[in-house]
Amino acid sequence: MLDIGRDFLKDNIRRQVDFSQTEQSRGIAEPPWQKPCAAGDKKIALAQPKDWKNIPELSLEKAIARRRSHRKFTNDALSLDELSFLLWATQGLRPTASTGKNFRTVPSAGCRHALETYVAVFRVTELEKAIYRYLPLDHALVEAASPPGLQGHLAEATFGQRFCGDGAATFVWTAIPARMEWRYAEASYKVIALDAGHACQNLYLACGNIGAGACAVAAYDQERMDALLGVDGSDEFTIYLAAAGKVQGLPKEVE
Ligand SMILES: Cc1cc2nc3c(=O)[nH]c(=O)nc-3n(C[C@H](O)[C@H](O)[C@H](O)COP(=O)(O)O)c2cc1C
User: N or C: which end of the chain has fewer CB within 10 A?
Assistant: First the structure.
């Protein structure tokens, strides 16, 4: 067992994959860059970077110095502009000179971006309490689920980590491995996990701009989390979470 785990962290798999036989090499159309919406899904537009209000500037040096895990949150809500900023920071599209490109604010192996972002919203102005899915290509949200008792469900699905239901919103990243497998076949899995780290790190740093904090969470009940999001657990499944919300003043040593 340990060997399987350790091998996952290595890159020996790359020598074993026949890259001439990947779906991409065989001319198969690539999976969509963003999970399609269902008929009748209502898109909720988010604020664009040029339009959002009250997102103070913060030097990168300060953002890095402030970064720490927060598990205690105030009762303050995030504004929709603040949530827009956090979603943009974690998966937003990066403008490029050429159209039709899928470059984002975070790097991704082969630019395959196999992650989907869900946000369990508890306190965000203008949004009902529910789980939403972020659409990076539209910079918009769609509602994914609205189970009663959402905060409690989140705590239960993270083995009783109550802070996962205490913040203003909890981010949940799923993987759609087919997007990465199209190019990298069995060499896809480690890089998907690495990509999730980039998204979460940007969330930590962006929280610093808006008096918020985050805590990464990798301990969760796979089946419960997938059921909560309404994903099938096979072609799409949860891989990482982070609770986020406003926090009390920063420790003295930071400023
Ligand atoms: C991959 C990963 C998984 C984590 N999972 C959890 C978790 O399930 N629960 C939790 O309370 N903290 C979790 N954390 C937060 C760590 O405990 C935290 O980063 C660590 O204690 C160092 O503290 P700092 O982030 O303030 O530097 C996780 C962090 C990472 C990077």
Answer: N
